[in-house]
Each structure stands twice: as structure tokens, then as C-alpha cells.
Write a sequence for this structure.
């Protein structure tokens, strides 16, 4: 079995974390960098990611997470918050970053910047919100798989109240919305879920090769 498949077979949605085990600073830095390097449409990364280890904050979030134990028992809670709206500054900031990183005059990037703005700026607010959330999910998936490579357990979570997360974490004032949450840490020996066979559609049912 290839390492790629091994990591994905090993990973499962951890239901019970061992609250005594914490992800090391070194591994956390690796996960953060792996997530930073994730792909996004146009490279714009229209989201912000909160890495929460503070136990008091996790306790505050638990009632807004259907009282799921993963929130308080996991080593860290990663909240992916998408930008609910944006203007030209999203593109302008990106172009400035490209210019600095690649030592290219911004003038030479103006055509590409104008193209991005023509496709994005006038989108309806609901469409913008949906698009930025999709971008956040790309980074979310990358983090989950990077964690599996480090044998760090995860639980992807959509079972939470975004409005209350936004209030607790002060996201609304920053034009952000909690889109999806990933609990990371190490599985408890008492988590029976780890012994379940992974259930997925067959290759024949899921794929069409053309």
C-alpha cells in the first residue's frame, strides 16, 4: 500500500480525543505552513484561520458546537473563517504581495489584476460568500491530510452555530464568518470509532473514466 493511501486509510473522524495529549509546537508549525501553502482560486486566499488552544475559549465554544466533546478535549480547534464580502482591496493586496515576492513591478501585473476584479468584484454578496467559503474548504482539506501524514488525528466539524462562533471570536467585526471547524489532537483509546471499517462508495460507482 502506498504511503498516500495508507495515510488516508489511517485517518478517520475522531469522536473521542485524549485530552492529556497535545500537538507539539513543531508539528503545529508544520500544519500551519502546510495550510498556508494550500491552493486557492487566483491565489487570493479569501479567508482567515484561527488556531485555538486556550481552554477557556474552547469551553465557550462547546455549547455552540452541540456540546460535542471534541471541542474541549482536542489539543487545538482550527476555525476556518471565510470573508463574507470583499472589494478591490482583496486583489490589490494580492498583487502587491506578488510584486514583492517575485520582484515584479506592480505595473506589469495591472492587466491580471483588472481581469480578476472583472470576474469577482461585482458578484452578488451571496455568491461572494459562497465562493470564499469554498476556498476555505480547500485549505481545510489540505490541513486534514497534512495532519494524517504526521499521524495527528482530526475531526472535521460542521455541527456548530456559526453566528455564535462569530460572536465569541469577534469575527463579524472583521467581515468574517466561521465556515468549518477542524479539531486536531490524538485519539483516545476509548474511541471505538477507530476500529470501524472505512465505508466509502466503490471505485466503479464513484468514478467514470472517459
Amino acid at each position: 500500500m502506498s504511503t498516500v493511501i495508507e495515510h488516508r486509510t489511517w485517518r478517520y473522524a475522531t469522536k473521542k480525543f485524549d485530552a492529556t495529549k497535545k500537538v507539539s509546537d513543531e508539528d503545529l508549525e508544520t500544519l500551519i505552513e502546510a495550510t498556508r501553502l494550500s491552493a486557492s482560486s487566483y491565489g487570493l486566499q479569501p479567508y482567515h484561520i484561527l488556531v485555538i488552544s486556550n481552554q477557556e475559549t474552547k469551553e465557550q465554544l462547546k455549547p455552540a458546537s452541540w456540546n460535542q466533546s471534541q471541542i474541549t478535549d482536542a489539543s487545538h480547534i482550527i476555525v476556518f473563517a471565510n470573508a463574507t464580502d470583499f472589494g478591490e482591496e482583496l486583489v490589490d493586496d494580492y498583487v502587491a504581495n506578488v510584486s514583492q515576492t517575485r520582484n515584479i513591478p506592480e505595473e506589469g501585473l495591472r492587466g491580471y489584476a483588472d481581469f480578476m476584479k472583472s470576474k469577482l468584484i461585482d458578484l452578488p454578496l451571496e455568491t461572494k460568500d459562497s465562493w470564499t467559503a469554498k476556498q476555505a474548504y480547500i485549505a481545510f482539506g489540505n490541513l486534514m491530510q497534512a495532519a494524517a501524514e504526521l499521524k495527528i488525528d482530526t475531526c472535521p466539524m460542521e455541527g456548530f452555530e456559526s453566528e455564535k462562533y462569530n460572536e465569541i471570536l469577534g469575527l463579524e467585526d472583521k467581515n468574517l464568518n466561521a465556515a468549518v471547524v477542524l479539531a486536531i489532537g490524538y485519539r483516545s483509546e476509548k474511541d471505538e470509532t477507530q476500529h470501524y471499517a472505512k465505508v466509502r462508495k466503490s471505485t466503479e460507482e464513484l468514478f467514470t473514466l472517459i
About this structure: The first strand starts at residue 47 and ends at 52. The chain is about 45% helix and 15% strand. The chain has two domains: 3-85+126-206, 87-120.
